[in-house]
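Pasting as-is:
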Amino acid sequence: SVLVDFFFSEMRYIHINLYCIYSEMCLKNECPCDLFPDELDSYMYQTVGHQAVGLYAEAMDVPLYRRTIEGSSLHTAREYSQTEGEEVEDLYQLLKLVKKERVEAVSVGAILSDYQRVRVENVCVRLQLQPLAYLWRRDQAELLREIISSGLHAVVIKVAAYGLDPDRHLGKSLAEMEAYLHELSDKYGVHICGERSEYETFTVDCPLFKKKIVIDSMETIIHSADAFAPVGYLRFTRMHTEDKREV
């Protein structure tokens, strides 16, 4: 659940580094080309929900830099070296652009994936950027509870594991799914935080946001109608931001 991991990692960074200056913070996103499907089955990036990612800039009042994913997963060995046409090089090009805005570090929401960690670190070393991975190797049950209790509100927008059903679980919040995810973990070894892409999420509100994101309409897309582990996701068709109510 990439987007949840990213925003919670950002919250941990700001909590630990009280000197963080918001004016020097920005967001980056790799998105699919309009001619391709929402779900690219990328080894590196979450592409489901990309229609609403532009609202994050408005919600947080920070710049957003986006780049179309042109590469694919060509170099899938554990270690990574620069490879032409590889989707990792799209990340390199985007961060090379972002670095011009006085950015010195990259916040990574990785919890368990060496594949992603190694590639992000490779790009950061090449660009002399500092990778920040505050969630790395955290206990997933503890981390999910902390995410939910922190005030981060996210909804499930893709399911791809035994025991998860598009009709039943898409659109549910992490709070609503927590007990069931524990059950699936105990029975089938499902990663509670979705580290094997069992599910993906979209964050609609968190303490970093000045406005919340509202999804007005969406449609369910069945990517694979497997009898045991169907893969489905939500495609957002209309959304907006709105001011938070002061409590």
